[in-house]
Amino acid sequence: MKDADGLLLSPEQRDVLWRRLAEAIERYTRDVETVPVAAAPSVAELRGLLAGWDFSAPVEPAEALDFVVENLWRHQVHAPHPRYFGLFNPAPASMGIAGEALAAAFNPQLAAWSHSPFAVELEQHLVRALAARFGYDPAKTEGTFTSGGAEANHSAVAVALLRAFPEVGRRGLLALRSQPLLYLSPQAHHSFVKAARLCGLGTDAVREVAVNGSLRMRPDDLAARIALDRADGHAPFLVVATAGSTGAGTIDPIDTLAQVAEREGIWLHVDAAWGGAAALLPELRPALAGIERASSITFDPHKWLAMPMGAGMFLTRHPGALERTFRVTTGYMPRPAGDASGRCRTAITGRAAASTGDERSRGRPAGQPADQPPPADPYTHSMQWSRRFIGLKLFLSLAVAGWRGYETSLRRQVALGDRLRLGLAAAGWTLANDTPLPVVCFHRGAGSRAAALEAVAAELVAAGEAWISTVHLDAGTALRACISTFRTTERDVDRLIAAVGRAWGRQAPGE
């Protein structure tokens, strides 16, 4: 029997539930490729399904579980499907799924180091490991796991703003006499527009820089815009380079942009949420040349590293930047590790204590070597407070696959991107983007009608044959397909090429 409130099931019920859950997960993992990639949604049907669930009477655990499993099968775009050629939502790695289950069951609280020291240290170990892959000095890198790229990019705007204008942290934007400005390309992710709004800068603070024929930001135009804005009395503080844009997989010239940012004394952030995984592949690493010069980096393991949603990261090579931006003090949080005083430290007293040599006031756990910095409470270094153990799934996946396993997977997906390009070109399609990453944009020539291309995408999705989309580039509308999961095979790519050809013949006969 379950307990009176139904929150803790009996051991027997749990045994049945876990087995049923494991069977549902295994069936989905094994059979997802046998169903249509997507089904046509019906608002009326979905609300009708849910209308009967008024929670007035409890149901058996198996009934509730089966209801959800059945309708997840029927009513979603199956991103783990090998013919999902979509928006960086891959099939999750097996160890990633296991990590999510463990994180839910143990439910560690990562706000305070003292509550979950193993979990916090594990995540910081991953921060240092990924930092090294990007060319940062692991010993001087600060970082935090985030809910995703949007939070990491928001963090970048906040950190750069406080570094350029420390007084904003206390007095707000009213402390400034000039408008802070940030610069990005039209290919950059629109989370920066949100971040500008939420940071109080306003969307007018976002300056779009011209791109070249390959949709890469032009450093000369960036320098010219900065000069003009300074002459107009504005205050440039942030340049955003994109490494793998969502629309076309564009990688901005990071090294040259770093030169401009360094010359102008401006923070350079690289949004490498998806394309940053290229750092793990030796033959693609040159495409990210200069990323080690960036002041900060966004990276999303829940994209090309096949982690379940959500798992983002924010990294910076400027020690202290996170604390200056996010540190607050409270009377209710656990004392810092080793702090026998019982008082919460402020950023000022923390620095003062560090100069006294008093190990207890510096928050060093008993017995910790003297050359180790005191552990930081995660809530003082990120936008989040209470949060999930995000890094566990990545740790387990890396532990089992290793860097070499990920290198093999990424190399295979890049090769499939090349196969898709060659196959489309042979079938009469025109490629519309230029990137070493497996994002392929294509149309039927300069005169391709946008409506016909959109109809092709809609037909494939409605039939459940594949999930692709359209994208609007400088040259016009194009179809977009991305190799976004390690489960995609050569056969899936060939089926896509054949399917878009058939659909085009129906939507634009004779063209």
Order of helices and strands: HHHHHEHHEHEHEHEEEHHHEEHEEH
End-to-end separation: 67 Å
How many beta-strand runs? Answer: 11
Strand order of the largest sheet: 1-7-6-5-4-2-3
Helix content: 40-55%
Share in β-strands: 5-15%
Number of helical segments? 15
The description of the largest β-sheet is: 7 strands, mixed
What do you see in this structure?
It is built from 15 helices and eleven strands. The protein has helices spanning 11-31, 43-51, 61-74, 94-106, 117-133, 149-164, 168-171, 191-198, 219-231, 254-264, 321-326, 347-354, 391-426, 450-463, 490-507, and strands at 142-146, 180-184, 206-208, 235-242, 267-271, 296-299, 312-316, 430-431, 439-443, 469-473, 476-482. It has a seven-stranded mixed beta sheet, sandwiched between helices. The chain starts with 10 loop residues before the first helix and ends with a helix. Residues 340-369 have low confidence and may be disordered.
